[in-house]
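Re: the 337-residue chain
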Amino acid sequence: MPGDGEKKRTLLYVAGSAEANRVLGELAVEMGIELHFVEFDPQGDPINGDRSSDELSKVELFWAHGRFTGGWVSKVVSKLPNLKWVHSDFVGIDAMDKEDFLRRGILLSNGGDNFARPMAEWVMMGMLVSAKRFIHYQTLSEAGLWDPSVDLEELSKKKVFLLGFGSVNRLVAEMCGPFNVEVSAWTRTEHKVVPPHLQGYYFGDEIPSEIYECDFLVVGVPLTPSTQHLLGEAELARLKDGVVIINPARGAIFDEAALANAAKGSRFGYLLLDAFEKEPLASDSALWGRKDVTVYPHHSWSSPLVTDKAINRMKHQLDLWMRGYEPEGTVDFRAGY
């Protein structure tokens, strides 16, 4: 949408959750905007079911703020006939009705690097937990045993392979620098400028053979038809013995049954997993109850600082929109991210 950067609209009809209503109310006062808000409940229905069709038809912005599901977003979107823009605090869009967005020409902007730092720190934790044998010595500590027979390792000169190079893995690459590790990354589409902090960079439809030489594999690709089960039984079998796999992205990047079977064979040094094909992870999954596997409940993004980041990004996006500019970080639905 074109903008002249000078004229600024002052009236906006918005939809979202109770928390989005509270935050946007404060931002509207700060930014000099007259805001009309339609609040939706956790089931995706407008508060006070008697909302008129005229009121719903005026809504142009829907802010998906706080904890929500893709299904909730899709339900709210379906009730707003003239919606122009959805802003999501998160990055993943695999659970949303992308065809509806495309058909109706609705823009979707994402949270950018809102959650990059806590997730990248979580990845680095996984590397250090593995190298320093933290779980082994925590177990001995709980049992009151003094046994220094298992040696520790350094990260220095280890090989890290980043599957995808979005906001999280870009920060992981940067954080790896002081540890003197060799970092390589792969993306499906080419980055015209070789990303910084990398010793190797690959792109294309095929995963490069370098992935099979790494000591640490960090998953950071979006879930699309092209990446679903990208790592199946054959790929897992070729990974280096003792490899550490860290996945803060999407569970379905793996064939989860193949991953669980491979874990039972004790081929991997350690698995740190935050995402699964079906969540919550089934109680009978072979990934539970293993000392070489740590299961997180899709929570690597968690931090007391992320709310302020999300609000600041929304304020910036809202300022662009009211000046007639397109928001930043709009999603390419055909690419899937």
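The chain has a mean pLDDT of 94.
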